[in-house]
Specification:
The chain is α+β, with helices and mostly antiparallel strands. It is built from 14 helices and 19 strands. The strands form four sheets. Strands 6, 10, 11, 14, 15, 16, 17, 18 and 19 form a nine-stranded mixed β-sheet that branches. A five-stranded mixed β-barrel has the order 1-2-3-5-4. The chain has a three-stranded antiparallel β-sheet with strand order 7-9-8, with no helix packed on it. The longest helix has 23 residues. It starts with 12 loop residues before the first helix and ends in a 17-residue tail after the last helix. The N terminus is likely disordered.
Length: 485
């Protein structure tokens, strides 16, 4: 028994067995936690370059043992790295000095192996190893029979197991990384500059959401994890940076669901001299381009929905969609409140605008499967947005819905400092003390002059869900927020 286990210490029997093997490996003079290992090639690359008629080929790979079949003097191992799997053939004939240690290897151990490359009688590309190096001894029992880690809660809590137990999970997160690179390339080709703005802010602004609050001890001030980067990015427009974007975290102290995580990734961008129509064109071009590259065509499956991304995408006003699906004209407030009551919306303390928004959410959004730009929102819901010239009650704003989810939100930005200050004052009425602070520096920035602009925010996690067919936002965030056990 390994010395790591003291008398009376509780441990899983499988873990105890692994500790015992660890002790035996040490007794054989083998270092169980290896050091640098140079020269390893990815499994997928080895398979891709294999030639049937070349007996001189060699290969060197490193990874985790995910399957082991011991048939006496021959052991077959499936080795997995970030690119995929490859088979190793280990024989006592080729590895006589190492054989005692090799017989102690288990599923979960990380090894390096090199040898001649060939095929078995069943046609499996195999490295017939003449060198095996233990790089890390695994002390925890892997998922049973290595058929994959199936328990959803454990998968999210132990992503470090999920990634190598379920190869499709690894592929999802590699695709996420590739999509983010493509988004950056797309924007940089259009002369957008990537920037970074503060994540800890003295005033929680840029969106209507409950913030997380922290405290800076040295300055003795409260700070807020940002709910949006909007007001800082607009300051950069004032400073003369005409096209800016940021891909980074936002934090909103709100609920957990299939579509919500309190910490999430947002793409936010601003283009001087643009408007919300420019943002619609940009959004459609970006997402269609990503679908062409990362999906099997523009007809995609998302849960039980079949979604067509074929262009052009539908554009419909907030008012016409509201009437179509709620059965109420947006101007008929008594009918809307009656509808809200029928939908079970508690509305006694709600402003009319909020009731309209709640009814819209419950009646309209569930019908927006194919891409739909919902345009021209009630101005009272949009304090940072420019009004339409011919109708100041309407804001030049859109939200993009795909698969019954909001994917993007965009404005023609408001750049009149007097109107912005008044809108802030209206917005702050009735807010809690935490949120009842105006960003006076932002108003001052507008007084220096901000060019007319279009602004766009895209929820990256939801976009990745759509492009990968993931059922939950937790499937596309490596370490989602979870309830404590």
């Amino acid at each position: 028994m390994s010395e790591e286990f003291k008398e009376g210490q509780s441990a899983d029997k499988f873990e105890q067995q692994r500790h015992a093997k660890l002790s035996r490996i040490k007794e054989l003079g083998v270092e169980p936690y290896g050091n640098r290992y140079d020269g390893a090639e990815k499994a997928a690359g080895v398979k891709a370059r294999f030639k049937e008629d070349d007996p001189t080929q060699r290969a060197d790979c490193a990874g985790r043992i995910v399957l082991l079949r011991d048939i006496g003097k021959l052991i077959f191992i499936t080795l997995r790295d970030s690119s995929g799997d490859i088979q190793l053939g280990l024989s006592k004939k080729l590895l006589p000095k190492e054989w005692d240690f090799i017989k102690l290897l288990e599923v979960g151990d990380i090894i390096g192996a090199a040898g001649q490359l060939g095929k078995t009688k069943t046609g499996e590309i195999t490295i017939w190893a003449d060198k095996v190096v233990l790089l890390c001894k695994s002390l925890m029992q892997p998922p049973e029979k290595f058929h994959g880690l199936a328990d959803v809660d454990i998968r999210y809590r132990q992503r470090y197991v999920d990634l190598w137990a379920n190869p499709e999970v690894m592929q999802t997160f590699k695709k996420r990384s590739a999509i983010l690179s493509s988004i950056r390339n797309f924007l940089q080709e259009k002369s957008f500059v990537e920037v970074e703005t503060p994540m800890m802010q003295p005033i929680a602004g840029g969106a209507a959401a409950r913030p997380f609050i922290t405290h800076h001890n040295t300055l003795d001030i409260d700070l807020y994890l940002r709910i949006a980067p909007e007001l800082y990015l607009k300051r950069l427009l004032v400073g003369g940076m005409e096209r800016v974007f940021e891909i980074n975290r936002n934090f909103r102290n709100e609920g957990l669901s299939r579509k919500h995580n309190p910490e999430f990734t947002m793409l936010e961008l601003y283009q001087a001299y643009g408007n919300y129509n420019v943002m619609m064109e940009l959004t459609e071009e970006l997402i269609v381009g990503l679908a062409d590259k990362y999906c099997a065509g523009r007809q995609i499956k998302f849960g039980s929905m079949e979604i067509s991304l074929e262009q052009p995408w539908r554009r419909a006003t907030y008012a016409e969609l509201f009437e179509q699906y709620s059965g109420c004209k947006i101007s008929d407030l008594p009918a809307i409140r009656k509808k809200a009551e029928h939908l079970g919306i508690s509305q006694s303390q709600m402003d009319n605008d909020i009731v309209i928004s709640e009814v819209f959410e419950k009646t309209v959004e569930e019908n927006l499967v194919n891409p739909t730009f919902v345009i021209d929102y009630p101005a009272s819901l949009c304090p940072l947005t420019r009004r339409k010239k011919d109708n100041p009650d309407i804001a030049e704003r859109f939200e993009l819905f795909i698969g019954k989810m909001e994917i993007a939100n965009a404005y023609t930005e408001l750049n009149d400092p007097a109107v912005q200050e008044e809108n802030f004052r209206i917005q702050l009425r009735g807010q809690t003390e935490t949120m009842a602070t105006m960003d006076e520096d932002f108003v001052q920035a507008l007084k220096y002059g901000m060019p007319p602009a279009g602004g766009l925010g895209i929820g990256i996690d939801r976009l990745i869900m759509l492009l990968t067919g993931a059922d939950s936002i937790r499937d596309v965030i490596l370490f989602p927020i979870l309830r404590p056990k």
